[in-house]
């Protein structure tokens, strides 16, 4: 068994109790944001389920445990997109359905981990539904998602849901300070949704300076001094993360208008609030969310052009 990350232990103990009592549901959905290390939890769970000696942990030496160790257990199947960012295909799900109909190779449990579920297209999701509707007794399905709201309700309603909640900013900071990465500003955890591993990567890859650079360019824009084309180009080079950061800046700015203040706020929040009134921050944050979602769903779009368009509108609203 792995030494679990501290924020995973509550849910793991709950799972263990459920396995111990032999009432772990046949179909489960675990909801966890990216950068929470849910893979570690799934790994512990898989080894425990497959072990022939213990119900809720792996012994490490039985035949099953050894097969798990060498990644060759015939009753353990992980379904994930063949390439990152692509979808799992209906053929992958059909194959998984066929395997679920067969009997266990080692006369124990069979486990299917589907990872991440939102990467299934609609026909794959429909194919999976059939199997979830009539699960055979020794068959477990563990579905992992980072975005539960984008799943078909027909899928979620057939699964027991487990939520992996992010720790408080302060606990993330404490954990990070033990990872010898030097000083970590409190807002680093905040703009990464308090997901500890995402924050760790953020700090390690020196995205702190990248963030500060984008923040100062954005504030210059609010002062009608920025180079909007340059900013759009930079935001478009990693739109998924940089637009998210900006969203936190706008959202913190709104809170400043309400007189709120926490050490985890983005450093430029107060200045943004000074330059832009609440109503505009609110409406532009909504527009930004729409843009983020649009870019996420349609990978073929011209991100730079759409971001430029949003920045012009943002600037226009401030000027008007
Ligand atoms: Zn074992």
Automatic annotation (TrEMBL):
InterPro entries with a match to the protein in the record: DNA_pol3_clamp-load_cplx_C, DNA_pol_HolB, DNA_pol_III_delta_C, DNA_Rep/Repair_Clamp_Loader, P-loop_NTPase
Task: Report the top EC class in one word.
Answer: transferase
Q: Which organism is it from?
A: Vibrio brasiliensis LMG 20546
Which named protein is this? DNA polymerase III subunit delta'
Q: Which GO terms describe its cellular component?
A: DNA polymerase III complex
Looking up Gene3D superfamilies in the UniProt record yields: 1.20.272.10, P-loop containing nucleotide triphosphate hydrolases (3.40.50.300)
Residue span, DNA polymerase III delta subunit C-terminal domain: 206-314
Picking any one GO molecular function of the record gives: DNA binding
């Amino acid at each position: 068994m792995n030494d679990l990350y501290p924020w995973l232990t509550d849910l793991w103990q709950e799972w263990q109790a459920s396995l111990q009592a032999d009432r772990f549901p046949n179909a489960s959905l675990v909801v966890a944001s990216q950068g929470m290390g849910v893979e570690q939890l799934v790994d512990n769970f898989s080894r425990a389920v497959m072990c022939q000696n213990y119900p809720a942990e792996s012994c490490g030496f039985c035949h099953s445990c050894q097969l798990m160790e060498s990644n060759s257990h015939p009753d353990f199947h992980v379904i994930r997109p063949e390439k990152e960012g692509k979808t799992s295909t209906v053929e992958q799900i059909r194959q998984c359905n066929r395997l679920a109909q067969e009997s266990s190779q080692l006369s124990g449990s069979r486990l299917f981990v589907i990872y991440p579920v939102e990467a299934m297209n609609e026909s794959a999701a429909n194919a999976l539904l059939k199997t979830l509707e009539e699960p055979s007794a020794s068959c477990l399905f563990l579905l992992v998602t980072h975005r539960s709201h984008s799943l078909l309700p027909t899928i979620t309603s057939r699964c027991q849901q487990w939520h992996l909640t992010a720790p408080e900013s302060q606990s993330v900071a404490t954990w990070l300070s033990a990872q010898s990465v030097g000083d970590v500003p409190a807002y680093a955890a905040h703009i990464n949704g308090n997901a500890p591993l995402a924050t760790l990567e953020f700090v390690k890859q020196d995205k702190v300076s990248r963030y500060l650079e984008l923040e100062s360019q954005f504030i210059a824009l609010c002062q009608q001094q920025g180079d909007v084309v340059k900013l759009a180009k930079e935001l478009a080079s990693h739109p998924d993360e940089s637009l998210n950061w900006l969203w936190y800046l706008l959202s913190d700015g709104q809170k400043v208008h309400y007189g709120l203040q926490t050490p985890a706020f983005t450093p430029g929040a107060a200045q943004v609030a000074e330059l832009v009134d609440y109503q505009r921050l609110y409406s532009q944050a909504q527009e930004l969310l729409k843009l983020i979602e649009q870019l996420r769903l349609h990978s073929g779009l011209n991100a730079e052009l759409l971001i430029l368009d949003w920045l012009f509108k943002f600037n226009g609203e401030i000027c008007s």
